Amino acid sequence: MSTPAATAKKWTGLPRPWIISGPCSAETESQVLSTAKALADSGNVHLFRAGIWKPRTKPGGFEGVGVEGLQWLKTARQEYGLPFTVEVATAKQVEDALQYEADVLWIGARTTVNPFSVQALADALKGVKIPVLIKNPLNPDLELWAGALERIAGAGIEKIGLIHRGFSNYGNSEYRNVPMWHLAIEMKLRHPQLPMINDPSHICGRRDLLMDVMQRAIDLDFDGLMIESHPNPDQAWSDANQQVTPVRLMEMLAAMRWRTEDINSDSFHTALEALRQQINQLDNEMVQLLGRRMQVAEEIGRYKKENNITILQAGRWQEIIERACAQGERVGLSREFITRYLEAVHMESINRQKKVLDN
Ligand code: PEP
Ligand code: MN
Question: Which residue has a Cα nearest atom 10 of ligand 1?
Fold first, then answer.
């Protein structure tokens, strides 16, 4: 795999990207050992993952092999030299994972949503020196993710990483968990010193979309990837549709276009700077225009107040959306983008008008 030169400034101390792989669940000793061997032999994987305790939506499914699996992971590390990480959701699991000298712990999406659980983990981690990776919560709530980070950092854990695994949604999407990249980017901008890892497996839920999501993450300067791999994915006891063989994983990594955050080239920097200036200028103009738009909205609010008319008028809103979508289409802006943008603008207009009407 040809990857960028070592630019690691973060605690991983590794050349980026940091590649974490292994099965969704540890199933048998031979499955763990054969996966770890294949990944270690490739030389492209830095950390082995496997779920020992599996949080399942409904009872009755495979809930993980438990502590027994920790010994398999330890053996795999001894045999093939690959450090390992497991998911922990309770204080007892932290204790067990530490007893087997796990190298890194990760907190799953179903745990990050629950401040009680995260605090229990933080309490169990007090005084312990182990890196902890925190997955985003199931729901698109950045503050829950940030809260989990604060709790774990509050316990004195210094090496913390973030994992973007997408957000659950109701309804149609090609993804198992919609990526909502903007949330991961916002978190990354808030905590530029922390490694941000992308987990394409749980975002996609299916193999054919993985490559696209991995590439997007690398294009967005993510620090690593956590990808599920299994010697026989179709027979996996959990998440069968999204796992790939170690061989397929290596093919995908080899086909990636790796990016560096920076290169030493004056002409590149000059061109980039000129484009950034344009972006700044356009952003300034858009902000000015939005300010003007809100002033007009307030004027309409005053008019509505005088005439005792409701703020929200569905017909007019439809007309605004249709006009903008048609215009957007002509300049290459998707309907989805225009609608999301206008909804935000409209919400702000309504709030402004409400203030006028309440005065
Ligand atoms: C997993 O990594 O196998 C897992 C359960 O992930 P998540 O917490 O993202 O659903
Ligand atoms: Mn999984």
Answer: 109
Q: Is 77 in the pocket of ligand 1 (CB under 6 A)?
A: no
Query: How do residues 21-55 score in pLDDT, each as one tens digit?
Result: 999 999 999 999 999 999 999 999 999 999 999 98
Nearest ligand to residue 85 Cα: 1
The CA–CA distances, whole Å, from 12 to 9, 83, 123, 199, 254 equal 8, 13, 24, 17, 22
pTM: predicted TM-score of the whole model, two decimal places: 0.78
Q: Which domains does the chain have, with CATH numbers?
A: 18-255 (3.20.20.70), 266-358 (1.20.59.10)
Structure tokens at 172: 């149609």
| 197 in contact with ligand 1, CB cutoff 6 A | no
Q: Answer whether 24 contacts ligand 1 (Cβ < 6 A).
A: yes
Q: What is the model's pLDDT at position 54?
A: 95
